Q: What sequence folds into this?
């Protein structure tokens, strides 16, 4: 199962490092990363393989959520299918 | 990899524009629970509902988490109790209502619909008893919703039932007067009620359905409004295209959630309901979409045309996004649940007459409208008759959900909170239709019903 992690908020030092560290800690394999600036927002998007997570997916979502809250960022972790469904016929 | 813009668009839809799944509704047949003993019936329905829906809320929450899309309500719709309990009496029905409430609490769902009767052509003794019991049943339960289908295009309009429903609604409003007559918000009077509607208060599990089914209702007026806001100056054909594209995306999420829920619960997937269901949150409003198209205020001339365009485009966009479409499928215009409608009604631009016209081109009807508490029951019945006629003649579903707020009059407000919102008491026409309503009988099915 693949998930998309999006990180949005004000740019800061070490955002990618923190999110990557969290992924590594719980066994989420990063497949791709892209970064962009949209409407003054820093936005990073990661595609990760979460099929070998060491914790449940819900718990992983909560961990990243908490990490976002600590760093004044908004982190969304969503199954890739929601994007595939919406944007591909 | 996925397109960055697409990903951010989805997140913006959820974060800023209130995109959500309004409800996952599990339909459960109670046809195998019949008994002439009320206690046995209640035990059977409780056992069946709590068994079939035991994982509904859990699975809903898992899907919510996995896909990052809010699922606002999890609900249950059951076979109309007047059919499943076809040999029961008044007291048994009250017991059944309380049992449904207990089952809703045990499973953790937000609402349970199906305290219903289908009496478009006539009524059985059980259906009469159930209709009589609605005020007490609604007033003594929390999660139970009731609906009565009084007409179809094929059968015509059962005016005896229409006359009765005016009194039922008034009595319910009186019994729940401590909560701004909230009980009336959980009663819907239908014409051409669909069997697979996931939305409350009108959801029930039709007799043509299977044992269990999963139906999903989407939301998303905020997303449509926001898409239109980016297209200032576009002509109306372009506006329709934008709505179609947006409705497609919204419905795809609904389809995804429905498919997942169906698989995880091992319950067949029924339909996705393509409705634009508003909430009282700022921006999540159907009225604001119409205003975004260029009306100064919802209710102005042009409102019906704008709504017709919106409703049609939503269906055209949505229908390709889902393998099975059903339910009510259209834009909703519940006054108290729509921030823009509340505003338009407050400032006097949106009147009851305009709302009635609007219901001719959209789903569903006179919905969540507060009227003075001293309104005569016959006037409520006549409002129902008018609205139901629009549905019968136009081969569409229409419904009436009005709240005669006890002790309140024009200028007052009622407030239910949450998804139910708040509503100003609207002015009504008080000329008496009593003689017409008291005639009773049936209005014959219109000629367009003879299609064979």
A:
């Amino acid at each position: 199962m693949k998930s998309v992690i999006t990180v949005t908020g004000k740019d800061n030092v070490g955002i990618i490092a923190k999110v990557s560290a969290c992924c590594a800690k719980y066994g989420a394999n990063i497949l791709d990363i892209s970064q962009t600036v949209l409407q003054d927002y820093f936005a990073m998007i990661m595609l990760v393989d979460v099929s070998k997570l060491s914790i449940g997916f819900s718990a992983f979502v909560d961990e990243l959520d908490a990490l976002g809250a600590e760093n004044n960022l908004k982190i969304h972790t969503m199954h890739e299918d929601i994007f595939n469904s919406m944007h591909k016929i | 990899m996925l397109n960055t813009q697409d990903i951010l668009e989805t997140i913006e839809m959820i974060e800023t524009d209130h995109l959500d799944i309004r409800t996952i509704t599990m339909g459960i047949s109670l046809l195998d629970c019949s008994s002439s003993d009320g206690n046995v019936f209640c035990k059977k329905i409780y056992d069946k509902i709590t068994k079939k829906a035991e994982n509904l809320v859990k699975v809903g929450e898992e899907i919510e988490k996995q896909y990052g899309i809010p699922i606002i309500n999890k609900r249950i719709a059951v076979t109309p109790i007047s059919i499943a309990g076809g040999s029961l009496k008044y007291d048994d029905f009250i017991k059944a209502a309380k049992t449904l409430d207990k089952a809703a609490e045990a499973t953790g769902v937000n609402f349970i619909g199906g305290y219903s009767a289908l009496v478009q052509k006539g009524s059985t003794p059980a259906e009469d008893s159930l209709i009589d019991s609605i005020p007490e049943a609604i007033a003594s339960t929390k999660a139970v919703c009731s609906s009565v289908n009084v007409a179809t295009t094929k059968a015509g309009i059962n005016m005896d039932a229409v006359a009765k429903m005016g009194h039922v609604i008034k009595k319910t409003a009186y019994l729940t007067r401590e909560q701004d007559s909230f009980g009336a918000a959980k009663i819907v009077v239908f014409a051409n009620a669909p069997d697979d509607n996931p939305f409350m208060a009108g959801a029930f599990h039709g007799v043509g359905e299977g044992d269990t089914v999963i139906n999903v209702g989407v939301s998303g007026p905020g997303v449509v409004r926001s898409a239109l806001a980016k297209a200032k100056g576009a002509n109306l054909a372009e506006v329709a295209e934008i709505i179609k594209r947006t409705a497609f995306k919204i419905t795809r999420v609904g389809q995804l959630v429905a498919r997942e829920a169906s698989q995880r619960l091992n319950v067949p997937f029924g339909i996705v309901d393509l409705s634009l269901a508003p909430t009282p949150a700022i921006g999540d409003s159907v009225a604001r979409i119409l205003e975004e198209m260029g009306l100064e205020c919802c209710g102005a001339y042009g409102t019906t045309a704008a709504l017709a365009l919106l409703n049609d485009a939503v269906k055209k966009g949505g229908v390709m996004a889902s393998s099975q479409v059903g339910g009510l499928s259209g834009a909703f215009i519940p006054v108290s649940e729509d921030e823009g409608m509340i505003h338009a009604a407050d400032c006097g631009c949106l009147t009851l007459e305009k709302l009635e016209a609007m219901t001719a081109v959209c789903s569903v009807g006179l919905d969540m409208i507060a009227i003075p508490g001293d309104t005569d029951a016959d006037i409520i019945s006549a409002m129902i008759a008018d609205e139901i006629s629009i549905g019968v003649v136009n081969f569409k579903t229409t419904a009436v959900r009005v709240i005669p707020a006890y002790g309140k009059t024009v200028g007052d407000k009622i407030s239910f909170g949450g998804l139910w919102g708040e509503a100003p008491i609207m002015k009504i026409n008080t000329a008496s239709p009593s003689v017409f309503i008291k005639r009773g009988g049936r209005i014959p099915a219109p000629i367009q019903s003879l299609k064979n």
Notes: The mean pLDDT of chain B is 94. The interface with chain A takes residues 1-4, 6-11, 15, 62, 65-69, 249, 252-253, 255-256 of chain B (CB under 8 Å). Residues 214-449 of chain B form a domain with the Anaerobic Ribonucleotide-triphosphate Reductase Large Chain fold (CATH 3.20.70.20).
